[in-house]
Every structure is written in C-alpha cells, then in structure tokens.
TrEMBL record:
InterPro entries: AGPR, AGPR_AS, AGPR_dimerisation_dom, AGPR_type-1, NAD(P)-bd_dom_sf, Semialdehyde_DH_NAD-bd. One of its GO terms (biological process) is L-arginine biosynthetic process. Catalyzes the NADPH-dependent reduction of N-acetyl-5-glutamyl phosphate to yield N-acetyl-L-glutamate 5-semialdehyde. It comes from the Bacteria. Keywords: Amino-acid biosynthesis, Arginine biosynthesis, Cytoplasm, NADP, Oxidoreductase. This is N-acetyl-gamma-glutamyl-phosphate reductase. It is found in: Cytoplasm. The active site is at C149. The gene is argC. SUPFAM superfamilies: Glyceraldehyde-3-phosphate dehydrogenase-like, C-terminal domain, NAD(P)-binding Rossmann-fold domains. PANTHER family: N-ACETYL-GAMMA-GLUTAMYL-PHOSPHATE REDUCTASE, CHLOROPLASTIC-RELATED, N-ACETYL-GAMMA-GLUTAMYL-PHOSPHATE REDUCTASE, CHLOROPLASTIC-RELATED-RELATED.
Amino acid sequence: MKAAIIGATGYGGAELVRILHQHDYIKQYSVYTSSQVGMKFSESYPQFNQITNEQLKEIDIDKISEEVDVVFMATPSGISNELTPKIFERGLTVIDLSGDLRFKDQDVYETWYKKKASPKDVLQKAVYGLTEINREIVKDAKLIANPGCYPTATILGLYPLLKNVKVDLDSIIIDAKSGVSGAGRKASLATSYCEVNENFRIYKVNEHQHIPEIEQALKTVNPELGPIKFNTHLVPMTRGIMATIYCKPLNKMTEKSLRDLYQDFYQNDTFVRVREEGNYPSTKEVYGSNYCDIGITYDERTGWVTIVSVIDNLMKGAAGQAVQNLNVMLGIDEGTGLYGPPLFP
Ligand SMILES: NC(=O)C1=CN([C@@H]2O[C@H](COP(=O)(O)OP(=O)(O)OC[C@H]3O[C@@H](n4cnc5c(N)ncnc54)[C@H](OP(=O)(O)O)[C@@H]3O)[C@@H](O)[C@H]2O)C=CC1
Ligand SMILES: CC(=O)N[C@@H](CCC(=O)OP(=O)(O)O)C(=O)O
C-alpha cells in the first residue's frame, strides 16, 4: 500500500513521515508541497538525511490518484475543503488532519473557522476519527476527519464519566494547555522564542475553534450538554497537551468507583492508560508517543471530580491518531507503527 502526504513540510506531515517510515504495512509514501516542489524532504528536515530520499512533488490530484491508495491531508484549515472532494471522488481513502471535515453542520464550521465549508455530501461521509470512541465506524470509513489535539485529550478524559455518571453539566470546566508545535511550523510573532520562553499565556479566550468540536462529540453522549467552558494556554515547551477538567457529579461517588469506571472503560485500549490513585500524568510521560494518559480523582471534601488528560499533540493529537485510524480501516493491528515508547527525559 502506498500513501501520499500533502503538507509534508509541516510538523504534522513530518511526523507522518517519521511514523510511516517504520510502518510494516505502508511500504511506500510520497510527499507533496505547494511551495517547495523538487526539493528533497530531508532538505526541509535534515534529521531525515540518509533515511529518506523522497523529493517533494507538486500537488497534482490526477497523478496522486494514479500513484497512491491513501492520502493524508496535513494542511492548514481551508485547503482540504478544496482538495479532499476531488481526491475522494477518484476513489482514494482520505485522512484529514485539519478541522475541515469535523463538523456535520456547515454553519458551525464557517462561524468558528471563518472559511467556506466543505460540500455537505462530503461532510456526511466523513467519520470523526476519535479511534477509541468511534472504532466501529472507523472500520468501514473511507474518509476520516481526524480530531483536533485539544478535543482528543478532552473527550477521552470526559467521555467515560459523562457516559456512566450523572454530572451537573453546567459545572464542567476544561482548562487546557499546549506546547508551541501545536501552532505549526510557520513562524509567527506569538510563537517566536522571545515571546514564548519563560512565559505562560492564555489565548483565543472563549473563541477557540475546538469548542464546537468538543461540544459536538460530547453531545452524542448527552444531548442536554450546553455550551462548554473551555480555554487554552500556550506553554513554553515543544510538544504536549494537558487538559485539566473539573466537574461535579450529581451524586456522591468514591475514589475507587471513579477509577474502576475509567479502568473498565479503557481496558481494551492500548493507547489510553489510566493512572492509579494519587498518580497524575505529565506531558513528558507521553512525549513522542501515541499514548493518552489520564489521571482522575474524586475530592470527598468538595464532591468535585478532577480529570487530567495528556497527549503529544503531534502524535495522538494528530499524525499518530491518523495512522491509528488507517490501521483500523485496514483491519491490521491498531498499533502498527505506533508502539514506540515515550521519549524521556
Ligand atoms: N500541530 C499540531 O499539533 C496539530 C495540527 N493539526 C492540524 O493539522 C494540519 C497541519 O498542521 P501542522 O503540520 O502543524 O501545520 P504546519 O503549518 O506546520 O504545516 C502545514 C503545511 O501545509 C502546507 N500548505 C500551506 N498552504 C498550503 C496550500 N495552499 N496548499 C497545500 N498545502 C499547503 C505547507 O507546506 P508547503 O508550503 O510545503 O505546501 C505547510 O508545511 C493543520 O490543519 C492543523 O490545524 C491537528 C492537530 C494537531
Ligand atoms: C498551540 C496552538 O496554537 N495550537 C493550535 C492548534 C491548532 C489546530 O490543531 O487546529 P485545528 O484542529 O483547528 O486544525 C490552536 O490552538 O489553534
């Protein structure tokens, strides 16, 4: 099987190259660019010197359709809206890392992304690829809307509780933080070293584009869920997302019942690891890996639950989950190419 990576010169695309290079089933991959045609991929990422000789190719949909079976879109939002319908209609499988295919409602996308939405029929066919939750429908999908990084950490953290316990829905607060690679490779003032180093800052306050994505997914568990309270912070680190989630169950719980619930829920999911009592994950403990680590506690004094969910934004939050979804679609071991342990320290 051969894969194409469109947007390979970005961080998500380069992470796809790193994973596919060690993938037993995808024997070949090719890399595409809108701005660096003819250049070697390793000129853009010298860490791939003598590992891959792939040259960056022009994005020509007809040629791509003849050469590959699956296309990863690792492009900024707005690009997949244009390209994916053309690729999909030629019979290829598409996995889109951007936000373009995540919403069934075009108005929601256009409101939050301020771009023209994909055609309705394409959106209807896209499956939201949060693997652990949607594995059964991912199996038969040909078009995957790969989830956003913050939604992946947040939804995996909240889902077992909302599914099994009555929660005061207004009490839910999601306080999220990200490393700088979440913003992509392109330089901007806000992500330059001087602005980020030894700094900690909130951004996109109450207007982050991942708010409606989290709402859409969690409403499938409880349609009564109202607007969620979600904010994001930029942390001076390269990779990693931490979502700290607070909420109040309507009835008293015990620490043990909460932990049993999470451990049972994720018992067959290799890539979600639930911590033991008193043990909370840090972002370095999933660095460079496809794991989502979750720490949970019930505070008997206040009656509130705290959930801490961490991922590597480029792995489980993007390229790792994209390959996990492809593996599920292919019917091969879900972890193919993804079993590498986290890099530490
Ligand atoms: N970074 C992260 O942690 C996560 C990112 N995502 C999403 O994944 C996608 C890729 O993100 P990321 O890799 O960080 O972004 P980058 O900015 O690092 O890379 C995006 C790449 O897209 C290509 N591109 C830009 N404009 C166009 C265009 N008009 N047509 C075709 N290709 C274009 C560029 O390559 P070239 O100039 O060579 O064409 C660029 O290298 C985004 O939609 C992002 O929101 C999702 C989850 C997490
Ligand atoms: C640190 C940082 O800037 N992160 C980006 C993540 C962008 C992203 O993943 O965008 P889509 O999922 O919408 O494609 C942000 O918060 O906007």
